[in-house]
Amino acid sequence: MGAASLIPFILMFAVFYFLLIRPQQRKSKTRNSMLSAIKKGDKIVTIGGMHGTIMELTDDIVVLRVNDSTRVTFDRSAINSVVSSSAVAATSAPVMVKEEKAEEIKG
């Protein structure tokens, strides 16, 4: 009887692990790798929704250029996502121009 009453608790723990704990660990790992991979020149969005380009970068602090004359300092952990990497931005710009020309021809 003791082992039979223990099975539901084991099943509940397994369900919690696969539905809650494991996905959260995966999200955390992805976020940490994104934060460690950011570099100068990347365009990012902060948790508060501010868009900017990374001008300076240390282990804990990021300085963003918001416009030509405004620079704002944030903690690295305040970065929500990388919109475009400096290497990707250089290669994706010509593709966008080609798409715009294709739309003009169709329209």
Automatic annotation (TrEMBL):
Gene Ontology CC, one term: plasma membrane
Protein transport among keywords: yes
Keyword list, A-Z: Cell membrane, Membrane, Protein transport, Translocation, Transmembrane, Transmembrane helix, Transport
Membrane topology: Single-pass membrane protein
Superkingdom per UniProt: Bacteria
Any one Gene Ontology BP term: protein transport
Main location: membrane
Transmembrane regions: 6-21
Intracellular or extracellular location(s): Cell membrane
Any one Pfam family match given in the protein's UniProt record, by short name: YajC
InterPro entries hit by this protein: Preprotein_translocase_YajC
Family recorded in the similarity comment: Belongs to the YajC family.
Protein name according to UniProt: Preprotein translocase subunit YajC
Name of the coding gene: yajC
